[in-house]
Design brief:
- Helices cover 55% and strands 17% of the residues.
- It has 18 helices and 15 strands.
- Strand 14 and strand 15 form a beta hairpin.
- Helix 4 packs across helix 13 and helix 7 crosses helix 11.
- It is elongated and about 125 Å long.
- The relative contact order is 0.14.
């Protein structure tokens, strides 16, 4: 549900911040006041193309922001999570259009492109009227609407699931059978597995190998260096550390005999002499044991060289080669055992084909029954909405091909005849915006509560009608508003009176600039606006009384 719309420096609107509630909200105003600007703003937030003419004269940019409550829109929540644009259940669409023609968009404060806006908007708002971007014109949406009308959710899910399993099974069969490529793949796998089994190592063994290589490559330096350190610690030179420490120990012993407080320090020298001796002995043993083994070094060097060659070939770090070995071994085992596996998979695919055929036949029968019923319901409503003799035909076309299809074995096309004697034509080809809006309204009322769109917008749905038909249109819109949020731009008081809430768009000018103002009307304001819509410039007391009666009758229904 749309909860708020903020527009700033958009066309003739300087700034407007509008809160929306549930039910039917009607939008009225004098001709040229900019009633459809709210619809235009929503279209732009839905990803429609923007241009610099939408920026208010003298301003550098236009800003548009819409906020939606997703409590009843699980598909929109799932889309946001999938795109990593979710924000604790919030949904805010924002778009900025600059005077030079560029624009930027955000979803929940994160940058988004027009395509993402469009995808999300199809789950949030549906706009009916003189616009080309309407979900109802999409054949895919028409089929979804028919299935929702028929209550086919379980049948559709079963058909989709079986078709998906059949496709996944087919992919496995193609991979296992492989045709001429299978033998080549087997040969390659055996070669690669053999190489990796010989050279690839688990992480601990690889670490040991690298440490050995480093030690063997520097064996001479290690032997010479440690021997030199031993000489510094315990050599024949008078500057050797153990000799110097011995002299220091003797001198401190004499001093400690004079002052016992030096005894602890003497103990420290004792410990140091012990540790120095241990270090010297250990280094001497290390220098003698250093492995000066050229042959072992050559073996280790060859092993590491082969590992780096394999890493380049497989485009992996050396440390990942052992894991790659496991993957290739599994694929090799699967291909080598493909004969039995292919027999099992072929049997499974045949079973899936039989199950799919039964499920698709059941879904097709339910669709055909619902198509006839939906056509009758909408045709009857078209008559009530001032299109006497008009009718809707729900045509189901078989899908070419014998493979299981995730949408079933038919496609849907809504055909409409707006006037008696005219052959039905595809709804997407109906030229009149007003007729299209009323047909859309009839379909929405007939399928009331069957689709998942949270907010429906009807722009000039009452074009070309009046009198009793206009009142029926208003009643249908109000009934629709009882189930979901509806916004309707109207110029007829019969429709405006039916709203649960009323917005008035008015134009103000000081001779130099023109501004559009959007006000949410209270009861008195609604009465006055209805009187203006009824009586024009001169509003009499009788007109106001008529407006009050019309409003009271509509709101009490």
């Amino acid at each position: 549900m749309l909860t708020a719309l903020y527009v700033r420096h958009f066309a003739v609107v300087e700034e407007a911040d509008i809160a929306f509630g549930p039910g039917l909200t009607v939008v009225s105003g004098e001709t040229g006041a900019g009633k459809s600007l709210l619809v235009d703003a929503l279209m732009l937030l839905a990803g429609a193309r923007a241009d610099s003419g939408m920026v208010r004269e003298g301003c550098d940019r236009a800003e548009l922001t819409a906020e939606f409550d997703l409590a009843a829109l699980p598909e929109a929540r799932a889309w946001l999570e999938r795109e990593e644009l979710d924000d604790e259940g919030a949904c805010q669409l924002r778009r900025v259009i600059r005077a030079e023609g560029s624009s930027r968009a955000w979803i929940n404060g994160r940058p988004a492109n027009a395509s993402q806006l469009g995808e999300l908007a199809t789950l949030l708002v549906e706009i009916h009227g003189q616009h080309e971007h309407q979900a109802l014109l999409s054949r895919g949406h028409q089929l979804d609407l028919l299935d929702a009308y028929a209550g086919n959710e379980e049948r559709v899910a079963q058909v989709r699931g079986l078709a998906t399993q059949w496709r996944e099974l087919g992919a496995r069969i193609r991979k296992l059978s492989g045709g001429e490529d299978r033998e080549h793949r087997l040969e390659l796998l055996r070669h690669e597995v053999g190489e990796l089994e010989r050279w690839a190592l688990p992480a601990p063994e690889l670490a040991d190998l690298e440490a050995s290589h480093k030690r063997l490559a520097n064996a001479g330096r290690l032997a010479e260096g440690t021997a030199g350190v031993v000489e510094l610690l315990d050599g024949d030179s008078e500057f050797a550390l153990r000799r110097a420490l011995g002299r220091a120990h003797g001198e401190l012993g004499k001093l400690a005999a004079i002052d016992p407080r030096l005894a602890p320090l003497l103990d420290l020298l004792d410990n140091a002499e012990i540790q120095l001796g241990e270090a010297s002995d250990g280094l001497a043993r290390y220098a003698q044991d250093v492995d000066l083994d050229p042959e072992r070094y050559a073996e280790v060097d060859v092993h590491l060289t082969r590992l780096h060659e394999l890493a380049r070939r497989h485009r992996l770090p050396v440390a990942d080669l052992h894991e790659r070995l496991g993957t290739l071994q599994a694929e090799l085992a699967e291909l080598e055992g493909a004969g039995d596996a292919l027999d099992r998979l072929a049997s499974e695919r045949s079973r899936l084909e039989r199950d799919y055929a039964r499920a698709a036949d059941s879904l097709g029968e339910a669709r055909r029954t619902a198509a006839a019923r939906l056509g009758e319901d909408v045709s009857a409503l078209m008559g009530e909405l001032g299109m006497a003799g008009g009718r809707l035909v729900v045509e189901l076309e078989p899908v070419d091909g014998s493979e299981p299809d995730v949408q079933g074995r038919e496609r849907c096309e809504l055909l409409v005849s707006a006037n008696p004697g005219q052959p039905p034509r595809a709804l997407r080809k109906v030229a009149s915006g007003g007729e299209l809006a009323r047909i859309s309204l009839a379909i929405e009322v007939a399928t009331l509560g069957k689709d998942t769109i949270g907010c429906m917008v009807f722009d000039e749905v009452d074009t070309g009608i009046g009198g009793a038909v206009a009142e029926v249109v208003g009643q249908k819109l109000r009934a629709l508003g009882a189930e979901r949020q509806v916004l309707c731009v109207t110029h007829l008081p019969q429709v405006a009176a039916q709203g649960h809430a009323h917005l008035r768009v008015s134009k103000r000018t000081d001779g130099d600039t023109t501004r559009t103002q959007i006000d949410k009307l209270d009861a008195a304001g609604r009465r006055d606006e209805l009187a203006r819509m009824l009586g024009g410039v001169e509003i009499s007391r009788e007109t106001k009384a008529h407006a009050r009666q019309m409003l009271e009758r509509a709101q009490s229904a």
